[in-house]
Amino acid sequence: MPDMSGSANLxxxxxxxxxxxxxxxxVTPGVLGFLVFAAxxxxxxxxxxSLNRHxxxxxxxxxxxxxxxxxxxxxxxxxxxx
Length: 82
Known about the structure:
mainly alpha
């Protein structure tokens, strides 16, 4: 094992004692975990709202090719067959 400096060795010992004090059955995400999850949820909500607004602005009707007669309904099928 490589030599560790005195401060690094002390930090590792301190971290090890903190880890031993934690009860594995009582560890929870806490307030920070809740805040991160809530921020992600709010971000997704705003993204979905923006997506719906942009999708509403899209015109899904295809433009007829240049020079084609402007016919709609059953007559359009008859024009295409000719």
